[in-house]
C-alpha cells in the first residue's frame, strides 16, 4: 500500500508568465498557460523548449481556461476574462482569438466544455446566471439557467449529456439543460464555500465537492441529504477530482497553510490516508490536469501548474494506479486475519505478554506499509472516515506499543473491547476496557475491574479515576488512549504497591525483581521515526551550549536545509512525524537520491534497508527549483547531487560577556604576607584589563587593610573601622560587590534592587584577601606588638559583618534597621554584635576594646558558620573556574582560604602485599604464608610503627633507620642499586 | 569582543544533534543521526579529528563530558536505547561501558558534579531515569527511577554540588553534607526535581514544577556561584522558556518566571559558567542569549542567526557595570 517514489517529474519554470490558469488539450500535446499579457502554449513532449506565445490585451487575469475535450475541436480553447469568454484557435504553432462570448454582466467564475457536444460550453458567473453557449452562434447563450445565487463552479456531467452541476456557496444544484427554469436537485453539501466540483467519471449520479470547511464530500445527488463519504482534512480543500483510472482522487489543499505536499493522491475507497503525495511545488498548485495516455503506455501523467511558476509533469505508474483500488480490500483482509488469529490460537498457549508483541510483530513483518501509511502524515490528516472507524480501533490495537513490564493485554477488535491484566508485587489487576462506537472521537472507553483483581477497593477507585481522566484527556482531542491508559495503570499500581510496602524500603529492587522469571520476549525492532516513536521527542537540529570557561559552542541546520513544512508550521513534537516518510507520502531525500529505480519496483511494503534510510534530514530537505529536466532515466546529475546534511559547529569566544576575566585570574595574586602589596598589585592588574571599577575596589581594600597601621600609635583608637574615613568609604564600595550576596543572605526585598553581577571572581578574591588579613598568625607578623587588637579583626568582623553594616548604612536607614531586626531574630550572634558595634560603638561604649574583646569571645563560640560556608562556596566556585582556565596554582592559592579545605587527595592508597606470596595483607604478618610482610632493610625486623620506603624499589624500613641511613647514603640499603633519594622523596 | 574562534566542519553524514566541549575547552565532541560520535581537538583554532566513535545503532542524541579528574570520559545516548560511556586511554578511545537498561530511545545524559564521583543520569522515552554510578574496577551500579515521567523523559540536568541552603547551621570545618539533586523534564509537561539523601541512596521525587503546556524539551540547572538561590531553566514544545528560582533553603518554594515565548519549539537551554547568561535554541534554527537585568527582567542580548553571523552581543550591560 505504501506508495513509492514513482513520479520522477518534469519541471519547467516559466518565471515571467504570471499565469493563473492552465489547461491540457485532449490529445495530450499542449498545455496552455494563461498569463495576463500572454497565453503560453507549451509542447508537453518538449516542455523545456521555449513556449509559443499568444499576446492578449486585457487588464484582467484569465479566470479559467479550458481546451475543448473533443478531438474534433482539439484546436479550440476557451479562456474567461472578466465578463467575457474568448475562444482561441490554435493551429500550426500560431493562435488567435476566434470569437468572443459576451453576455455575463459580472465576472465569470467557471466554464466547462460539454463532454458530448464539441460545440457546447457552459459558463457560470457571479451575476447568478449560468449560460450554455453554442459556439456556432456566439451572439447569445442558447440556454440561460437562473440560479438566483452566484455560482462558483459549473461542471457538465460526464455520463449524461443533459446534466450539469453548479455550486453556490455551500450548496450544489443539479440542472437538466432541458429544464432551465429550475434546478433538478439541491444539495446542501457544505457549511462553507465550495471550491471544487467534480463528477464521477463513470457514475452519472456521483460527484465530489471540496470546500473551505476542510472536507471533501462524495454525493449521490439522488440522496441529497446524506453524503456517501467524507474526506476530512485539516485545511480547506481547493480542488478534489477523480482520476481517469480506477477510483483515485487527487486533492489540492488550500496552500497558504500547506506549502508543500498539498497535492495528494487518494484512493476514494480508503480515505484514511493518501496513497501518494506529489512533492515538489513550493507554492499553491493552481491547476492540475491529466494528460491523455500515450498509446501503448500504461502510465498516466499529471500536469500541474503552481504559483511557484513551474509546470510539472508527474508520472503515475500502474502500481500507483492500482493502489487506488486494491489497497483497502487486501489490507483489511490481512489485518483481519492477523486479528482473528490471536484470540483463538494464541491466547491459551502463549505466555502472557507475548500477545501484543505477536500482533505487532505480525503486522510489522507483513504489513508495514499498511500500518505506516495509515499514520497521520504532516501533509494531510485524512481520518475519521465513518466507515473507517472500526479500523481505527483495529489499527490502534495492532499498533499499540505495550512493551510494559508485567502487563498483558488481550484485544478483541470485533467486540470493541480489550482486557488488561497487570500484576505488581502480590497484587493483580484485571480491567476490561470497552470502546464505544464513536471512540476515539470524544468518546471515552469504559473501565471495569473484573476478577481476579486483588487490590483493595480504595485503590480501585483511585485507579479508575486516573484511567478515566487519562482517557478523557486523549479522546477530547480524538486521540487513541489505550496505551497511555495502560501505562498509567501500571505506574499507578506500582506507586500504590510501593506505598503499601514502603516500610520494607527498597522500592527499586522491588519493582525490578517482580517476577524475574517472566519471559523476556525479543523486542520488535522499531522502525526509526515510525508510529511507535510517538513518545520520542523530535530531534534537535540546532543548539548552543556554554562550554569550557568562556566559549559558546553552537550548531545549526545548514542553510540549504529547510523545513519541509511551511515556516509557519511549528516543528513537530515527536519523532513519529517522520512516519510520513515511511509511507512514502513524502519521500525522504536519500531515497530520492539513491536507489530510485530499485524503489520503484516495490509493490508491497518497503524493505527494512530502505526504512533505515529515513532520517531526520528527510524532514528538512527542500527541493530546489530547477529548470533542468529531472528526466525519467537520464537525469542523474541533479538527483545525485550531494547535499551537506551536517552544518558546521561554531565555537565562539564569549568571555567578554562573563563577569570573570581570565587575564585577571592570571594576574591576581594572593600574598598572605603582604596584603598591601596584594591589593595594590591586584588593583594594577584590574587597570591593565581596563576594569577601573575593580581597580578602585582593590585600592580601597588596600587602604582599609593598610590603615590599620595608623591606630597602632594611638592607644585610644578602639574603633578604627567606624571612625576612619577610609573605613566607611571602603565599606560603601565593597557593598557594591557584597550586596548581591547580602540580598540573598538577608532575603531583604529592599536590597533586591542591587544588581546580581555574578562576579564570583571579585567576591572570592576579596573574601580571600580579608581572610588572609585576619588570620591571626599573619596578623602577628603585621602587628606583632599589639596582639590584643586582633580581636577587632576576627574573621567574623572583617568578612561578613563589614559588608552587612555597609549595606545597611549606605542604603536607606530603614533598610538598615530592617536588616538588623531580621538578623537579631534569626541569627542573633552577629546581628547583635557587629553592625551595632560598628555603627554605634564609638558613641555608646567608653571602652570599646573591652566590649570588642567580649564580643570576640562570644563570636568565637557563636560564629555563624553559614556565612563562612558561603564564602567557601565563592572560593570553591572561583577555584573551579580557575581550574578550567588551567590556572591550577592560582586555584590552590584561593582554596587555601576555605575554612574547610578540599579533602586530601585520596587517589593513591598503598596496598601492602606480602613480598613472598603476593597476597594482600594487613598488619605485619601475612595471613597466607605467615611470614613477616614488611621487614626493615636495616634491622631486618618486622616494621610496626612509622615506616618509610622507596616508591621505586619498594625497600625501606623504620623511619628512624631510614633517616639515619640516608643522611650519609644515596643508594638503597639493601644494595639493590636503587637511588632511592632521587627516585622518591623520603 | 565576542569572536568566532573556530569553525569546525564535522563531516558528519547526517544532521548533528549535539556538540559539546570538554572541561577545558580543548576538545569538541559531536554526535549525529549518522550514528557516530566524533571527537575533535580544537586547540588553537585547529580541528583534528581525534576519534570517530562507532557503536550506536541509531541516531545519537546527546553527549556529555565527565569531569577530567576521572580521566577523559564521554557519555553518549541514542535512539538505539543504549547509553555508551567512552574512555580515552593512551590516546585511544574505547567503550568503557554500555548500558542497555532502557526500553526506548535515551534522550539525555548528564554527568553529576564531580563531588559525587562518576555518576551519570540518563533520561529515556520509556519514562524512566537511570543513574549509573561507577563503583570502581569497571563496575557500574545502576539505579532506575521507573515512571519518572509518564510517556517519556526528555532531559536531565544536575544541580551543582552545594550545601543545601547555606544558611543552615553546620559545624565549622566539617565536610558539608551534600545532597545529590537533579532536575528532569518530560512528556507529561512537568519539570521534576529529584534528590537522594546519603543515608539510603534512594531517589525521591522532591518537587513537581508545573507551568508548561506541552512537552518539556530541556532543563538546565544553573551553576552555583555560592549564592543560596537555586535557578533552573526549562523549555518546551510550547515555545516557552521558564526560569525557576528558589530562595528557600529547604528547596520547596519555587517560582516561575517566563523568559520568553518563542514561535517554535525551544529544545535547548544552556547556562554560562557564572550562571548569568542563558543560551536558548530551538526549532527556528536560531540561538539567542539572555541575561538578567538589574531589575530582574530577562533581556535578549544577542542573536545568532541561521548559523551565519557571530554572536553580535550587546555589551552595554557590561559597559554600564564598569
UniProtKB/TrEMBL annotation, chain A:
<protein>
    <submittedName>
        <fullName>WD repeat domain 59</fullName>
    </submittedName>
</protein>
<comment type="similarity">
    <text>Belongs to the WD repeat WDR59 family.</text>
</comment>
<feature type="repeat" description="WD">
    <location>
        <begin position="187"/>
        <end position="229"/>
    </location>
</feature>
<dbReference type="InterPro" id="IPR019775">
    <property type="entry name" value="WD40_repeat_CS"/>
</dbReference>
<keyword id="KW-0677">Repeat</keyword>
<feature type="region of interest" description="Disordered">
    <location>
        <begin position="346"/>
        <end position="385"/>
    </location>
</feature>
<dbReference type="InterPro" id="IPR049567">
    <property type="entry name" value="WDR59-like"/>
</dbReference>
<dbReference type="GO" id="GO:0035859">
    <property type="term" value="C:Seh1-associated complex"/>
</dbReference>
<feature type="compositionally biased region" description="Basic and acidic residues">
    <location>
        <begin position="346"/>
        <end position="356"/>
    </location>
</feature>
<keyword id="KW-0853">WD repeat</keyword>
<feature type="domain" description="RWD">
    <location>
        <begin position="395"/>
        <end position="496"/>
    </location>
</feature>
<feature type="compositionally biased region" description="Low complexity">
    <location>
        <begin position="803"/>
        <end position="816"/>
    </location>
</feature>
<dbReference type="InterPro" id="IPR049566">
    <property type="entry name" value="WDR59_RTC1-like_RING_Znf"/>
</dbReference>
<dbReference type="InterPro" id="IPR036322">
    <property type="entry name" value="WD40_repeat_dom_sf"/>
</dbReference>
<feature type="repeat" description="WD">
    <location>
        <begin position="101"/>
        <end position="143"/>
    </location>
</feature>
<feature type="repeat" description="WD">
    <location>
        <begin position="154"/>
        <end position="185"/>
    </location>
</feature>
<feature type="region of interest" description="Disordered">
    <location>
        <begin position="803"/>
        <end position="859"/>
    </location>
</feature>
<dbReference type="InterPro" id="IPR020472">
    <property type="entry name" value="WD40_PAC1"/>
</dbReference>
<dbReference type="InterPro" id="IPR015943">
    <property type="entry name" value="WD40/YVTN_repeat-like_dom_sf"/>
</dbReference>
<feature type="compositionally biased region" description="Basic and acidic residues">
    <location>
        <begin position="847"/>
        <end position="859"/>
    </location>
</feature>
<dbReference type="Pfam" id="PF17120">
    <property type="entry name" value="zf-RING_16"/>
</dbReference>
<dbReference type="Pfam" id="PF00400">
    <property type="entry name" value="WD40"/>
</dbReference>
UniProtKB/TrEMBL annotation, chain B:
<dbReference type="GO" id="GO:0051028">
    <property type="term" value="P:mRNA transport"/>
</dbReference>
<comment type="subunit">
    <text>At the nuclear pore: component of the Y-shaped Nup107-160 subcomplex of the nuclear pore complex (NPC). The Nup107-160 subcomplex includes NUP160, NUP133, NUP107, NUP98, NUP85, NUP43, NUP37, SEH1 and SEC13. At the COPII coat complex: interacts with SEC31A and SEC31B. Interacts with SEC16A. Interacts with SEC16B. Component of the GATOR2 subcomplex, composed of MIOS, SEC13, SEH1L, WDR24 and WDR59. The GATOR2 complex interacts with CASTOR1 and CASTOR2; the interaction is negatively regulated by arginine.</text>
</comment>
<dbReference type="GO" id="GO:0006606">
    <property type="term" value="P:protein import into nucleus"/>
</dbReference>
<keyword id="KW-0458">Lysosome</keyword>
<dbReference type="GO" id="GO:0036372">
    <property type="term" value="P:opsin transport"/>
</dbReference>
<keyword id="KW-0906">Nuclear pore complex</keyword>
<dbReference type="GO" id="GO:0032008">
    <property type="term" value="P:positive regulation of TOR signaling"/>
</dbReference>
<keyword id="KW-0813">Transport</keyword>
<feature type="repeat" description="WD">
    <location>
        <begin position="9"/>
        <end position="50"/>
    </location>
</feature>
<dbReference type="GO" id="GO:0001889">
    <property type="term" value="P:liver development"/>
</dbReference>
<dbReference type="InterPro" id="IPR036322">
    <property type="entry name" value="WD40_repeat_dom_sf"/>
</dbReference>
<dbReference type="GO" id="GO:0005765">
    <property type="term" value="C:lysosomal membrane"/>
</dbReference>
<keyword id="KW-0811">Translocation</keyword>
<comment type="similarity">
    <text>Belongs to the WD repeat SEC13 family.</text>
</comment>
<dbReference type="GO" id="GO:0070971">
    <property type="term" value="C:endoplasmic reticulum exit site"/>
</dbReference>
<keyword id="KW-0677">Repeat</keyword>
<dbReference type="InterPro" id="IPR015943">
    <property type="entry name" value="WD40/YVTN_repeat-like_dom_sf"/>
</dbReference>
<comment type="function">
    <text>Functions as a component of the nuclear pore complex (NPC) and the COPII coat. At the endoplasmic reticulum, SEC13 is involved in the biogenesis of COPII-coated vesicles. Required for the exit of adipsin (CFD/ADN), an adipocyte-secreted protein from the endoplasmic reticulum.</text>
</comment>
<comment type="function">
    <text>As a component of the GATOR2 complex, functions as an activator of the amino acid-sensing branch of the mTORC1 signaling pathway. The GATOR2 complex indirectly activates mTORC1 through the inhibition of the GATOR1 subcomplex. GATOR2 probably acts as an E3 ubiquitin-protein ligase toward GATOR1. In the presence of abundant amino acids, the GATOR2 complex mediates ubiquitination of the NPRL2 core component of the GATOR1 complex, leading to GATOR1 inactivation. In the absence of amino acids, GATOR2 is inhibited, activating the GATOR1 complex.</text>
</comment>
<dbReference type="GO" id="GO:0070278">
    <property type="term" value="P:extracellular matrix constituent secretion"/>
</dbReference>
<dbReference type="GO" id="GO:0010842">
    <property type="term" value="P:retina layer formation"/>
</dbReference>
<dbReference type="GO" id="GO:0030127">
    <property type="term" value="C:COPII vesicle coat"/>
</dbReference>
